[in-house]
Amino acid sequence: MPIIIYNSLLAYVINMEEIMKIAIPVDDGNVCVSFGRTPYFMLYDTDNNESRFINNSAANSQGGAGIKAAQIIVDNNADVLITPRCGQNAAEVLIAANVKIYKALNNSIEENLTEFKNDKLSILTEIHAGFHGDRGR
Amino acid sequence: MKQLLILSGKGGTGKTTVAGAFIKLSNVKAYADCDIDAPNLHLIMEQESKPEHSDYYGLDKAVIDNDKCVECNLCYESCRFDAINKDDGYTVEIYDCEGCGVCEAICPSSAISMVPYKAGDMTLYREPKVFSTAELKMGSGNSGLLVTEVKKNMKLTSDADFAIIDGSPGIGCPVIASISGVNMVLIVAEPSLSGISDMKRIIETANKFNTKLAVCVNKYDTNIENNEKIKQFCQNNKIDFVGQIPFDKKAVEAVNNGLTIVDIDCAAGKAVREVYKETIKILSN
Amino acid sequence: MVTGEDKMKIAVLSGKGGTGKTFISVNLTFVAGNSNYIDCDVEEPNGHLYFKPKILKKEKIYEKIPQVDKERCNGCRKCVEFCKFNALAYIKDNVFVFEDICHSCGGCSLICPEKAILEKDKEIGEVQEGVFKDSKIYTGILNTGEETGVSIIKKLLTNANNKSYTFIDCPPGSSCSVMESIKDADYCILVAEPTLFGVHNFNMVYNLVKLFDKPFGAVLNKCLDGENPAEEFCNEKKIKILCKIPFEHELGKVNSNAEIASVKNEKYHNLFSSLLKTIQEEAGK
Known about the structure:
The complex is a heterotrimer of chains A (137), B (285) and C (285). Chain A has 137 residues and is α/β, with parallel strands linked by helices.
């Protein structure tokens, strides 16, 4: 037990040394429930503590919104994504691009960032089946 | 906002009948009909206010400008969906067009463009309760997005802390879109072999989402043996079985008069009250 | 028009599941004898549960999926930008293809300036041909997670032997799968339940068959005493009612055990023989 804790503390120390871009889906000042169809992403830079917002052009896609949103995250060089949920297809894109996906604690952007810095957030493990762009029904 | 979604797997099990009853019993301030292929909830939920309508646009579809068309036949050859008709000049069969854009890309004379195509109608009632619904035009695909829009409309318009959603049959895209973000799914099953088979598949789908899950059986007395099979299945798989509703001709009467089964005195109404109590217990835990 | 002597393709559709279209198409096949039964509800095929046919052959059905040649790919991302379905992503110098989302339009392959995208076959389902007495039973099965069964339906309809009668059991709704199923039909049977919900859904398929200019008639199923909104609708729109099947507990039980009612009870055999005759007369007009 103590060894594991020590290891994760070590990991914590290492993490904080790295400069990171953290992406969070946001809607109306809060963390958005949906990843693929969130209206915006916030990109937070741990280097200078600055954040900027980018439009999620995937929001109105018929299908494959998660994939397109993930592509946007990857193209903006995010290292980490904090989100309440994530679909299978989006997760595939993010994992292939080495973006770490963390589960959002609640809908407060501030709290999630704080908790992430304190290494309190856990990796998102429940990846749900995608909403496949459907033609038949 | 806590959300309860009512699904069925198989069509015709009585999902909307149960949803209507639940809405009346709970006096919920917000509800939605996500069965966009064939929305029915509005037929038993009387509305007081005027609805707001909006258009829902799906993927753009192709249209050919015959003035520019040189009849090279390239679009016909490249369309994988048999959507180009050349009986009388080149035209696009709108119901077959998938909006892929291949014909637009391949046309040497820029005669083809992708134009917005209205794929459905959204309706929103605000007073005294928020009711969001929509209907997909026939031949349309891509219904998951519209389901998401219906739910979004409901959530944006209401600050209620509890909402009930009437879902769609099947296990496909619109169902998955409706499950996303809800706290609990109640499955209304029917005691037939196809009903059981569909119930198992919707359970498998819902399980992927980590929501609370419960099953009830409607028209249970049409096949007691199959009803027992369902109960056994739930027990074996540790799924909450929240009750059974008998087949009741009075239920049909209620529906045909635009009422829910708890608006009249009937056996189905009595039974659904018990199902409701059990469901809410699980949701509140 | 067709007479009893000619070959007749009859599609059975219903708007929603649960109204009895499989029940009706299966029983019509049985009483007609020496017919084809085609189950076009490839997402949830149920007809085979009744016939338990002896399978003669199975054939896999494929869709084309893009395959990127990494050597040729120069990372221009034109394919990713072109795909209207967002089925492609570009990550770490590789193009990823999401087969579940891909609509097999062939666009990416066409648009690639380096000709780096080829196509490979992906299995999406299968068609089975079986026998039940002197009738041929065709079942289409879509693999779970697959997009659409339209290509399977096309194959089923092409494969079917030339017999006097072909009964097409359609999927519910009015989507492109349903449209594909009725394309070659000579006559359409619309099945309705005696509820307000039934009428609402019936209206959808009524509009569909009118759009496709198909001769049609209605079968009212599960009829109870009292008002029948579906009957009122048919009378109002002057739709020919071919038959009214009463709701009977026994029938419900037999059906829920996937037994063919016309086999079990002469009463139903007579009912369906009579229905078949009526259809012949109507279609002959």
